[in-house]
Structure formats: C-alpha cells, structure tokens
Design a protein that fits this description.
The protein has no helices and eight strands. With 159 residues, the protein is mostly beta strands.
Length: 159
C-alpha cells in the first residue's frame, strides 16, 4: 500500500440550480499540496447531482459526485505539451484525475431549487480515471471533507 496523497481544495465558485430531475451543484477552485510550501498544483471542478425521490429516499441525503483535478504544468505533472493547441496559445490537455462517489450533505436536506448551495460534509468514492502521470491511482479510495462556500478549504485524501 502506497502513501496517501493529501491535497487542499480552495473553493472559489459554488453554483446551485434545478435540473430536469433534481438539483445540480457545481464547485470549483484551486488545489494546493499540503506539505512544504502549499504550492498550487491544480484546479478542480466538482458536480453533485440529485434525483428527486431517489437520492433523498430513505433519509439518504446524498448525491452523485464527480470531481476532476486538472494539474498545472509547473506542478511537475502538467499537460502533454507547453503551449500548442493549434497555435492559439492554449496548452494541450493537462494531466488529470477523475474521482467519483457519493455525497453526505450538511443538514437534513440536499440543496434546494432556490439556488442555495449546501455544504458537503464528506464524499467517499474512488479514482475512476486518470491521465498517464496519475494512472497508478485508478481504483484507489478517496475521502473529501468539507467542500463548502467559496473561500473555504476542503481536504482530499486518496489512499
């Protein structure tokens, strides 16, 4: 068993909206290493989706959760190129990790259709996909704690 990868996710964006079948919540921000200088290593995008009468049945208070980490080039696990992208100054696709799991929302109810986001107390799941630099993590378990309002910091652990 390898070492645990621990990262801090600083939330910068949270948007909640009604979907055709429930509620969608989007979070995004920056990812920092926890050891040493706390340097920026990636950005993240997360989505949580509920389905009315399914994810709230039997007091589940849950949602489907999907998180992708996009690593910045200077983090040592950057994209597959330095620029390029058709000559338009864009970088090629970055190294990435995709994690999927289930949410435990703060309080007794998932986010409402009124646009009010909910704090995510904990997410558990596993790494479902990764680019070559991170493929050794596929199938590993993860835990994310306290993904909250913009300005807050969440802790991500991948075992």
């Amino acid at each position: 068993m390898g070492a645990t990868l621990t990262l801090n996710l600083k939330s910068q964006v949270r948007k909640t909206q009604a979907s055709a079948v429930g509620i969608e919540q989007y979070n995004g921000g920056e990812v920092f290493e926890t050891a040493g200088s706390n340097r920026l290593v990636a950005t993240f995008m997360a989505t949580s989706q509920t389905v009315a009468t399914v994810t709230d049945a039997h007091n589940l208070n849950t949602a489907m959760f999907d998180l992708t980490l996009f690593f910045v080039a200077q983090a040592g696990h950057g994209g597959h190129g330095h620029g390029g992208g058709g000559g338009h100054g864009r970088a090629n696709a970055p190294e990435s990790i995709r994690l999927q799991g289930a949410v435990d929302f703060e309080g007794q109810q998932a986010p409402g259709a009124n646009g009010n986001g909910k704090d995510i107390q904990q997410v558990i799941g596993s790494v479902s996909a990764a680019s070559p630099a991170w493929q050794h993590l596929i199938g590993k378990q993860f835990r994310l704690m306290n993904l909250n309002d913009p300005g807050s910091t969440a802790k991500l652990e991948i075992d």
